[in-house]
Amino acid sequence: MALGADAQITDLTADDHACLTFGEPDELSDLTAAFVRDGLACGLKVVWVSDSAAQRATSELARRGIAVEPALAAGQLAAAECEGRLLAGQEFAAGRAMDWLTSQMAACRQEGFPGLRVAVDMSWALRPVTGVEQLPDFEEGVAAALAGTTVSVLCQYDREGFDPVTLATVSAFHTRSVAAATYYADAKLRICRQYAPPGIRLAGEIDYQNAEQLALALTEAIRLEGDITVSMTALTFIDGSCARMILDAARGLAASRTVVLHCQPGIAATFELLGAGGMAGVSLVSMYDR
What is the dihedral of CA 144, 146, 152, 156, to 10 degrees? Predict the structure, then answer.
């Protein structure tokens, strides 16, 4: 079940309690990076509670263009695992998790930041955790705690992992629902906006039958300022017509802008055959070169 999004990640404001649904790890990292980036740019303190090691989370942010090291050194950015924040061993208690969140809110005020952003990956709740039935209580508590504050919380749910009833239940406690802007999605292909770095993301297989949707995505990406990234690391096939369309879009950009193509070696080979390796303004990066 994919909940309908009523906001983009870039639209979130001071006291939003937003429910983000994502379909793959790359999508989660992309949207979280945008949430972190915009918070840091506004001078806010930002905390990402991830379901992976803190160093892995910060490395992913850095890979997406976030100035991680200075933010960490200034105490403006923190990355932490769920253990010790939301979980104690394999046990969840809504009250304890709320104590952690309110302590972060108090610390932010004491440190002099104008506001706080907290991103919380809820994937831990897909494991056999004692007390997971208290998840709606936690979400309700977050909603109450944020009212009238300058604190926003982004709760992140895997739409493929969580059942529809759970997603519908927790969504009721959120002020916004957020997902990546999607230009096309079916069992074979997904074309989405990418937020950090800006561009588009393709997953699955694409050919001439989806040329119209690809053209729309590229057109909207071109309207943005700066360089464009076309992320194709989850793409397993692209035909010549779609690859040419991407390169033609790159040719039409101003000389000051670059199109970065991230892809698997097999996809990179298709672009090499079309001359991408020698094109000015095009950077072809195989996922094994990253």
Answer: -20
Parallel, antiparallel or unpaired: strands 189-195 and 198-206: antiparallel
Look up residue 187 and give its two tokens.
């069992």
The H-assigned helical ranges of the chain are 25-41, 54-63, 68-73, 94-111, 135-146, 164-171, 211-223, 240-251, 265-273
Q: Is the peptide bond before 197 cis (omega within 30 degrees of 0)?
A: yes
Q: Which residues pair with 189 in a beta bridge?
A: 204
Give the 3-state secondary structure of residue 253. Answer: coil
Mode of pairing for the β-strands spanning 91-92 and 87-88: antiparallel
- How far lies 154's CA from each of 18, 65, 120, 151, in Å? 5, 20, 6, 10
Which phi and psi angles does 92 have, rounded to 5°?
Answer: -115, 135
- What is the spatial distance between Cα 269 and Cα 286, in angstroms, rounded to a whole number? 9
Tens of pLDDT, residues 58-103: 999 999 999 999 999 999 999 999 999 999 988 999 999 999 999 9
Side chain identity at 213, as an amino acid letter? Answer: Q
pLDDT at residue 1 is higher than 50: no
Q: Which residues pair with 21 in a beta bridge?
A: 157
pLDDT in tens, 208-251: 999 999 999 999 999 988 999 999 999 999 999 999 999 999 99
Q: Contact at 8 Å (CB) between 90 and 130?
A: yes
d(CA 229, CA 262): 7
Question: Contact at 8 Å (CB) between 49 and 86?
Answer: yes
Asked whether residue 121 carries a pLDDT value surpassing 70, the answer given is yes
Q: Which residue has the tokens 């561009």?
A: 199
On whether the CB atoms of residues 7 and 176 are closer than 8 A, the answer is: yes
SS3 of residue 64 by DSSP: coil
